[in-house]
Every structure is written in structure tokens, then in C-alpha cells.
Amino acid sequence: MKQLIECVPNFSEGVDMHLIKTITNEIEKIDGVNLLDVDPGKATNRTVVTFVGSPDAVLEAAFQAIKKASEIIDMSRHKGEHPRFGGTDVCPLVPVSDISMEETAAYARKLAERVGNELQIPVYCYENAAFSEERRNLANCRSGEYEGLPKKLADPHWKPDFGPARFNPRTGAIAIGARDFLVAYNVNLNTTSTRRANAIAFDMREKGRPVREGNPVTGKIKKDEKGNEIWIPGALKACKAIGWFIEEYGIAQVSINLTNISITPVHVAFEVACAKAVERGLRVTGSELVGLIPKRAMIDAGKYFLRKQSRSVGVSEEEIIKIAVKSLGLDDLKPFNPKEKIIEYILENPGDKKLISMTAEGFASETASESAAPGGGSVSAYIGALGVSLGTMVANLSSHKPGWDEQWEVFGDWAEKGQTLKQELLFLVDEDTRAFNRIMDAFGLPKGTDEEKAARSSAIQHATKYAIEVPFRTMKTAYESFDIIEVMVKEGNPNSVTDAGVGALCIRSAVIGAWLNVRINASALKDKDFLGRLMKEADEIVLLTKEREEKILSEVSAKIK
Question: Is 225 helix (H, G, I), strand (E, B) or coil?
Fold first, then answer.
């Protein structure tokens, strides 16, 4: 896989779209990066920009954007609801694929050094790029905000990691770091009270609230015997939160940063916010996503709310995400388009022609054309996907069958497994064609010199091996689908038993069709040891497939007599 880093700089300008576009233009000039999202906020006077690309390209784009921001944003005139201390306030790097956090942190420090040296901006390295434990926390680095910078920079303890320790009223300072995927998420309240929103934020955030003497708001903070302030922790780990009023919407919000969604997922934060709001006589009306979100966070949320409704989670990805959007109220303030907010969807290449994106008629016509691909391997994988989809359908119908309410979760689990197998087989529809194209590409390599001949021969063998592995993977995945079909025939909705039977026929065709592809591609492979082991397992799968299909059809016939 290609190394990819995400960069999410926050610029202290959220009103003037011309200035914002001037900054993002610098990002778009750099080859190797993809600008994913630009999210300005008027009340915060802050824009969150998201782009992704190869590490070196991301560093160059980030530097140029920071440089441009330092030229056109005057922090001495900045006003906004969000904590800030610089024109480019923060610039975190996030590992996306094939790169470790340690490597990402090294890139962050490299960027920080260049910004400090070339732009003469004070730089603090935070999170995983921090040089000290105290500076890991962004709140510590940014404490005092812009107004407190002159005093902070004069303190030797807060000497910047890079750049001069002197106050520049125009640029302020910047925090550059490396972190896990952070979800910036706002919960909407049916109040205009910042104080009440703050109270909910303190209930939620990991830091919690201080214990005070007398008045719980203005009273002096209590201290323990050692002179340390006493704090009551909040309900959620890996959660930072504050309350504010958003004039643009006319409501108060709890503004949340979820720094590790594996510890505190979005749906958990939402549910806790709802509970804490009710305790204070308020109600959550919806929520707002700032920037982008990983698909898994939306899938986890959708499945959580489906289970809460005692509904099967073995439905399509599209429906799961729709449930997440509606349950979280992400379309409360403005329309929410998953294609524009979920990072994996944005990274999809619209120019990548996928067989599974075609209509059923289009796929059939493409298969019937004069081209050698898609061929039997792709069709076998697609037949298998249809087979397991029928089994999944029966599981979902059984989960919703009146009178079977106590079994919804059991059938839902089978449906969820079916969706996983279906997605794998759909992937293999296109992967089989890609494997075929690899062989064609290998045969097209030059073969003039001895070195070129050797390289070409090696490429052909590697491509051939992969062209065997893909249909073999189809065989194994399709065969695994029999588990669902068998249970649905025995225990599923009896009105749909023939649907499960048709599913078994599809799976049998998928296994044997893929087996034929394995065999024809195997004839050109020189690695006989590998081939011997694989063919032995493949032949066993075919025998077991025929036995299981015959048994399932016998049971189907017995039920429909």
C-alpha cells in the first residue's frame, strides 16, 4: 500500500471565503495531495481543512498553506468563540495507511522545524510529536491563548520547540503534532445558555470539573493536603468538551473533540450528552460533524442504534449509515451528505470503473462483449454474492417475523455475517478482473535483453500465482456461505425456505466456477509445491460443496411438500 498521511490544519479565519480559498489554493497546487474538505465556521471564525497524500507532499502542502496564512491573516484583529493562538492555530498529521505513528510524528517535527526556521513562527510540538509529556496536551500548549502569548513566550519554561521565543502580533504561534484520528463533533441543545452547555460539557469531558468551595461556579477551587487542585472526572475518556453559543444557529452547543474513537465512539458521546442534558432539564435536538469522520465510526453508530431498536444489523452499509445519520441528528442544522463527510467515500476514485457499480443489465452486457474480462471468475464471485445475499435476506426476514421477537438477535448475527461475506465476494468480482489484467500487463513487458526476459518471466509467474489465489479465495468465501444457508433452511422463516434453496444453488455454482478458473490458471504456474497444496484443498472444497448442496436441497424439498 502507498503511505498516506492526513493533515487537518485549523486556520483562524472562518468568514472571508476569499482568504480561505487563497490558503487552500496553496494546498491544491501540490502534486500528490487531495484536498478533501474545507469547513468554515462563522461563529468560531475558524476553518478546518482536511487533505491527504504521501508524506512529503503533505508536508510541502502544509508548509505552503501555513506560509500563506501567515501573510494574509492578522491575529491582532481576530475574534472567535474557539480557543486559538495563531493564524494557523494547529496543524496535526494523522497516519492513514502503511505508516506508523512514530514515522508520522517524525514528519510532524520535520514540518515544525521548517516552519520555525523559515517562517520565524513560534512552534509547539504536541500529542505524539511532543518533546515532553506536558506538551502532549494541546490545551497546555495553547493555554492563555493569543492574548497570553507575550507572557508565555517570555517564560523560559514555555520556550517554543522551534522558531523564535518572541511575540509576533500578526502570526501568533502554532501547534504542530501527530495524533490519532480526531472527530470534532458538536451536540445541539434546546437552549441558548452557554453556562448550561458548559455544565454538560464538564459532566462529559475526561478532565471533568474542579471542586469548589461554596458557589459551584465562582467559588475557590478546593485543594488537597499537598496543595493540588481537586477535580471530579467527567463521564468519558478521550473526550474534550466545552459549551458555547452559536449565533449562526441561535442555539448553544456542546463542542466535543473525541481524541480516540476506539475508547469513546461518537454514538456513546451522543448518548451521554442526551442523558446529561435531561438531568439538567434540557434536550439534545441533534448534532453536527465538523470536518470528516472514518466510515467505521458511522457503521458502529448505525449498528448501535439498530440493536437498540432490536433490529438486525445485517443490512446494507447504506442503510446502516442512514440510521446513524438520523439517530445522531446529523441533519438537524443542515443536510448531511455521507459522500462528502466520510473519508473513505471521498477517497474513492470516481474514474475507477467497477463492475459491481454497474447495473445488472450493464454487467451482463459487459460480460457478453468481445472483451475477455469480466470472465468466469468474476461471474462466479457475483453468483456467490447473490447466493449469500439470499441467505442474508432470509435471516433478516426471520429477525422481523412476528412472534419470533426473542430470536431477532440470533438471526441478526447471521445476517451480519452474510453481509460480510457478500462484501468480500463483491470485492472479488472486480479483483478477478484485475488479476487477469496483471497477467496481460506482465506479458506486455519488454523481452529484449536477458535481464528483461528474466524480469518479464518473474512478473508473469507472480501475476499467474495471484490469478490462482483470487478464484481460490472466491471458493473459500462462497463455501463459508453454506453455514448461513443451512441454518436458514432449518430454522429460518419457513415462507422463505426456497429462497435459501436458490442461494445454495448459487453458492454451488460459485464454488465450482471458481474452481475451474483455479485449474486453468494453474497450468502455467511453475511453483508446483504451492500448487499441490492449494489444489488439494480446492478439490476437497468442491467435494464438500456438492455434498452440502445436495443435503440442503433435500431438506428444502421436504419442507415444501
Answer: coil
243 with 198: CB under 8 angstroms? yes
* Grid cell locating 336: 448531511
* Domain range enclosing 88: 4-178
CA distance 22 to 65: 9
Q: What is the DSSP letter of 254?
A: E
Give the H/E segment covering residue 239: strand 239-246
Catalytic member of 39, 82, 180, 499 = 82
- Among 161, 180, 300, 432, the one annotated catalytic: 432
Q: Based on the residue annotation, tell me whether 82 is a catalytic residue of this protein.
A: yes
Determine the longest span between alpha carbons in the chain, in angstroms. Answer: 89
> Domain with 148 in it: what CATH number?
3.30.990.10
- CB 560: neighbour CB atoms within 10 A? 9
Q: How many other CB atoms sit within 10 Å of the CB of residue 133?
A: 8
DSSP secondary structure letter of residue 237? T
The whole-angstrom separation of Cα 292 and Cα 289 is 7
Alpha-carbon span 30 to 62, nearest angstrom: 10
Find the CATH number of the domain harbouring 413: 1.20.120.680
Q: Is 230 helix (H, G, I), strand (E, B) or coil?
A: coil
Annotated active-site residue 432? The verdict is yes
Burial class of 151 by CB neighbour count within 10 A (0 to 12, 13 to 18, 19+): exposed
Whole-number Å distance between alpha carbons of 245 and 209: 20
What sign for the dihedral angle of Cα 162, 163, 166, 167?
negative
Tally of domains in the chain: 3
- Candidates 383, 389, 396, 400; CA nearest to 505 is 383
CB 207 within 8 A of CB 240: yes
Do 149 and 292 fall into the same domain?
Answer: no
CATH (domain of 248): 3.30.70.670
Which cell goes with 501?
434453496
Q: Which amino acid is at 63?
A: F
219 domain-assigned: no
User: How far is residue 372's CA from residue 376's CA, in Å, rounded to a whole number?
Assistant: 10
Contact 336, 330 (CB under 8 A): yes
What string of pLDDT tens digits covers the 561 residues of the chain? 478 899 999 999 999 999 999 999 999 999 989 998 898 988 889 999 999 989 999 999 999 999 999 999 999 999 888 889 999 999 999 988 788 999 999 999 999 999 999 999 999 999 999 999 999 999 999 999 999 999 999 999 999 999 999 999 999 999 999 998 889 899 999 999 999 999 999 999 999 998 888 877 778 888 888 888 888 999 999 999 999 999 889 999 999 999 888 899 999 999 999 999 999 999 999 999 988 888 889 999 999 999 999 999 999 999 999 999 999 999 999 999 999 898 888 877 666 678 988 999 999 999 999 888 789 999 999 999 999 999 999 999 999 889 898 999 999 999 999 999 999 999 999 999 999 999 999 999 998 899 999 999 999 999 999 999 999 999 999 999 999 999 999 999 999 999 999 999 999 999 999 999 999 999 889 999 999 999 999 999 999 999 999 999 999 999 987
Q: Can you say whether the dihedral through the CA atoms of 517, 523, 525, 529 is positive or negative?
A: positive
